Amino acid sequence: MTTQKNAAGRKPAAGTAGHFSNDDTPIVAQGDTAGKLENAPIDKNSPIPDILRAGLVDSTNPGAPPLGKVWKLRTLADAYKERPPLEYVIDGILPVASLSIVYGAPGSLKSFVLADAALCVAAGLAWLEPLPVDGNTATELRTTQYPALWIDFDNGSRRTDERFDALGKARNLPADTPLYYVSLPDPWLDANNKANVTELAFLAVSLGVKLIVIDNLGLITGDVEENSAQMAGVMGNLRKLAEATGAAVVVIHHQRKSNGGGDKIRKGETLRGHSSIEAALDLAIVVERKPGTDDIAIVPTKERGATLPILGARFTYQHRAGTKELAGARFWAVNISTKSEQELTEIQAQILVELERHKAEGTKPKQSELVNTVRDEMSLFSTGPSATKVRGALSRMVDDGRVIVEDGNVKNAKLYSLGG
Question: What are the residue ranges spanned by the domains of the chain?
Fold first, then answer.
């Protein structure tokens, strides 16, 4: 085999593409600066494999430049430049230019509590103010006032109108509060289409919004099935939306009903869809509603940065006289932040995860098996709870109907399953 040489008879330098241009300049060399790469001409006569040539030259535009002319390469000099402090639309939780998901089971109030947050941002009001009752030490969350955009693909215009009407009037917000929303828009948003997402970015920039909420992910993926690896492209486009607009982009999504029979599962893995969805996020939050109540827990399941606390909230509302339509609605912060309460919430959530798994497998665990599995799973990243605490949490769930206990075939054995 003949080794290729340049006009001067030298071999290509280590790390080059293995060919030289007509002016004796390597087309691609490891360690080249951006300037050299940008100026490197494409030698159409050099023996570039077709698969590489396709990457360097657009077949429909032979004069297209290499990536060095398109990519904006940065160096440590850029990294060392002073940057302004990171801004948040909701203090400590939602930074600008971020991508987040809020998910939960049907009826968990996830969309409603996020709509409450969006209005607070648009008005510059604190979100989740403490419910004014004795002993409530919950802390409100400050917001930075920015216009907000809500895009509804799920609830329809009547329900969306009713919700924002009730939430706005509960706080006596003026009609010119900079909240913008659209319901079931035409044309539909296809987040797998870069041009479509770019149009949305232009709209957001023209409105000056810094919070964009999309309800919900499953309805904007175009031809992409949410359990496929192609979701990485959808999430990449949503990330570009956040970067292009400088907005906190929050997508509402659903919680999977079961984990399909795996042995163990993190709470974050109850987020429905392909793993690339969670991987793309700065923040994921699951909203869990206590059965039979208007109390919810807002539980972070993925954070990039400092660990966020579990938040407790209570939904309060009034109906119009003689109707079931809302006249006013808002969420208040309630205590759920003590160590014991947080631990209880986390234990009970893990119990539900394990029972969902057994339901999918068509099995019912004994108490000892369930307690040990919960303890093992919760001890993966920290000291797990004691068996006594898990049994106590399980007992409460039996009392409030979330878990059903029945006699097994073996003497004194108790079997556990999800309640209605």
Answer: 1-83, 88-337, 342-418
Q: Which top CATH class is 88-337?
A: alpha beta
Q: Which residue has the tokens 């912060």?
A: 333
* Residue whose C-alpha is closest to residue 335's, from 95, 139, 156: 139
- pLDDT, one tens digit per residue, over 181-240 is 999 999 999 999 999 999 999 999 999 999 999 999 999 999 999 999 999 999 999 999
DSSP symbols for 359-375:
HHHT---BHHHHHHHHH
Dihedral of alpha carbons 405, 407, 410, 413, sign: positive
Q: How many CA atoms lie within 13 A of 411 on its CB side?
A: 0
pLDDT in tens, 143-160: 999 999 999 999 999 999
Name which CATH class applies to 342-418.
mainly alpha
Residue with tokens 């923040």: 283
- 8 Å CB contact between 335 and 135: yes
pTM above 0.85, yes or no: no
